[in-house]
């Protein structure tokens, strides 16, 4: 016997039965982003490695440790995208979008790849939904972007999520904070984990991002970035908070929030779920402002703000909620005899064309076994088609939840099923 080949570690298959919750999240996102005027952008899953090195940053975990990098047959260094902001920015620059409109709002969704140690909510191929707003430097844009996420989470029914915000300042004020942080962390070097001792050398801000409790305690007692903000950065942060108030969005100011990417300036934010199912992977999404990145990538001087959410974690939370997302069939058609098989197949086809979700067992078999399958299918009604029904053109809809059979003409099945008062199968209510 040939040896079985398994899927790649950390990369999951999604099968029917599980995919419905994903489709619910995706369709809800499309609806919400559409309402806010965000258009969808799709970029390739592979990019020039230099794109991520220059934007995300060489010293970040993402680029330093987690990227799937390979050489193609032409000797180019390519990487599977670990995130979506840099590819979208690359596309924005490449297509000179800033020459066509002053403000652009884009969203994307799709797979991202990071070579990580796996746990619940942490995979090597995972999915993100993200949005980017280019061209507006005002705090109102930061607030509007957070509002999309808030409304998106509301539409999903995920309410137990807290928005954390912070400001990292800009080139003007961050160096002073940076120097103070390095001085402080050096004085507490021995208390930090081995990883953070290295981070301290290469990228000290990352120490604030460490999941280790001891490091968090050290970082928490250190200098507060907000006390170092220059006047324009302080004004931006104050106005952002005022605007969040105007929108009725609740938030927590968290001065330890830095996020794992190098490109942020001023506003950063994270949405953190309190459900224990996510463990250390409790951040469902986050983002921030990156006013310098476009220029750093050789593009125009265009300010930008964006965020990304992990779909895998949203799906985990929704599954914990226990709601079902599979759409059950309206009707199961069973045939009473061999001779009705063709008409059964044709009736199913016609009713599907008329918009019903119909289950029909192409294997045929005894009526008893078909009725068992009808039960299992979760269909609202079963219709048995036999010689008598074919001759008379009349049949009965048997409600699977119990109750009296409903007489129906074979040419009026769709209308009769639709007229039945029972609530239709759950569909995303956005
Ligand atoms: P974490 O601190 O949990 O590693 P991160 O800062 O690396 O997160 P981002 O780069 O900000 O994550 O990505 C945004 C979102 O994408 C995260 O909040 C999370 O929901 C999701 N995400 C990131 N990495 C993974 C992964 N390996 N598996 C599943 N989801 C992920
Ligand atoms: Mg990470």
UniProtKB/TrEMBL annotation:
GO terms under cellular component: cytoplasm
Coiled coil stretches, renumbered: none
Gene Ontology biological process terms from the UniProt entry: histidyl-tRNA aminoacylation
Superkingdom in the source lineage: Bacteria
EC number, UniProt record: 6.1.1.21
Catalytic reaction equation(s): tRNA(His) + L-histidine + ATP = L-histidyl-tRNA(His) + AMP + diphosphate + H(+)
Major localization listed first in the record, in broad terms: cytoplasm
Catalytic EC class: ligase
Sequence positions that bind L-histidine: 83-85, 114, 128, 132, 259, 263-264
UniProtKB keywords: Aminoacyl-tRNA synthetase, ATP-binding, Cytoplasm, Ligase, Nucleotide-binding, Protein biosynthesis
Protein location: Cytoplasm
A molecular function GO annotation: histidine-tRNA ligase activity
Domain Aminoacyl-transfer RNA synthetases class-II family profile: 1-329
Subunit structure: Homodimer.
Entry similarity comment: Belongs to the class-II aminoacyl-tRNA synthetase family.
Protein name (record): Histidine--tRNA ligase
